[in-house]
Amino acid sequence: IGRLEGQVARYKSAAENAEKVEDELKAEKRKLQRELRTALDKIEEMEMTNNHLMKRLEKMKANRTALLSQQ
């Protein structure tokens, strides 16, 4: 009986440790998913800014070309 009680105590301890590790992993996963969403949002914002700046640059080039052809 003593040996079985010892085994039960070890298994309980192992199960508690496994649950603790599982909770930590779940928290880490949530944190990483949050960081991923933030990074993806930032990429999208930067792509939009880049597209906007590229359009402005094209307009400026077109205006310069038009001015040079008028001279």
TrEMBL record:
It comes from the Eukaryota. One of its GO terms (biological process) is Wnt signaling pathway. Residues 1-70 form a coiled coil. InterPro entries: LRRFIP1/2 (IPR019139). Keywords: Coiled coil, Wnt signaling pathway. PANTHER family: LEUCINE RICH REPEAT IN FLII INTERACTING PROTEIN, LEUCINE-RICH REPEAT FLIGHTLESS-INTERACTING PROTEIN 2. Belongs to the LRRFIP family. This is Leucine-rich repeat flightless-interacting protein 2.
